[in-house]
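Quick question, first post here. What does this chain look like in 3D?
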Amino acid sequence: MGVSEWSGSLLEWENELSSLKERIGPVFRRSELRESCGAFIDGLLSGISRKTGWMMSGHAGLPGPWRMQALLGRSRWEADWLRDGIRDYVIEAVGCGDGVLVVDDTGFLKKGSHSVGVARQYSGTAGRIENCQVGVFLGYAGRYGQALIDRQLYLPRAWADDAGRRAKTGVPDDVEFATKPAIARRMIARNLDAGVRCAWVLADAAYGSDYSLRRMLEEREQAYVLAVRGNHYLASIDDGGIVATNPSELVGERADEDWTALAAGEGSKGPRLYDWACLVIPWNCRQGWEHRLLVRRSRSDPRKLAYHLVFCPVGTDLAEVAGAAGLRWTIEECFQRARGDLGLDHCEARSWHGWHRHISLVMAAAAFLARLAAELRIRAQGKQNKRSPNPGIDALPS
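> Answer (accepted):
Ran it through. Tokens below.
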């Protein structure tokens, strides 16, 4: 294998990008819209600093931003059709039987109060309450990469109950107030119903604490690893009956031999190493399945613990469960790529449809990059690495 094969210089990215545009073309019934979509995606993939209508129009050689603005605004096309097409495109590229679905939300800082869904609310991006929009997202991660496959704007109750603001920003009549976990439930169910196969569903404590989400997944016999807080209410069963407890109390003081050192995926500084412990929770369960409490302990500070509720087939290995828990970071990588390179948070549209159209087009660009990365990884693994001929390297102790 030559350098050109594993470095990516032979990737036929222009053909792949043309293929993607052709594939999503039927979403846009008019040729002008298809051309605008192609120019919009080109702009997202370009090096321009802000993915605004004016700057992307300039990149495309257009005299003004009107075509780009029309693509997000007054034109007629269904963003959900594009979303579904991107989902299928991503699954073809990185899908595998042992992939995972990851749900999370992210904030979009805004000035003013006219953009749909904007309110003073917590933004995970900022780490505090800010004037922002919040979107709930679903990512898919497989052995060859990850990408976002679904999204929905969270509509605060003040917006959901305000007929005037709804009408002004084009919120559909069938969109009612829903909590973020409720949005996540529908999102996960929609993708499972569409045939997306996954080994695990992952989420942080904001979603893991939602009983309805866990119940929905259990009824589908879908394994999950969902984070919860240390004080999350649990009811365990012993000889005396039902005992109220929480993850922190259930774990208690555990001996050193109860912990197993395992890596939780690759981090920016190499493998992320933690200690793990797992115990079965005696809850009623479907035959062949069980509930567990998975605990992650920091190796540098044993007082730092993270808790996860697990639903899995009986006999599932601890390394499998810990490995799944460690993949929750993949959606953060999706956010970082989409924000840093593709303008996920550069949306100028104020309407419901404009937000979902912008986000879906960014997801299309991100899916294209994920497919190229997957192809590169597959090529790199096409031939086993040989032992380095460098004697200095060979002489290093193993």
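The longest strand covers residues 128-142.
Confidence is low (pLDDT under 50) at residues 383-398.
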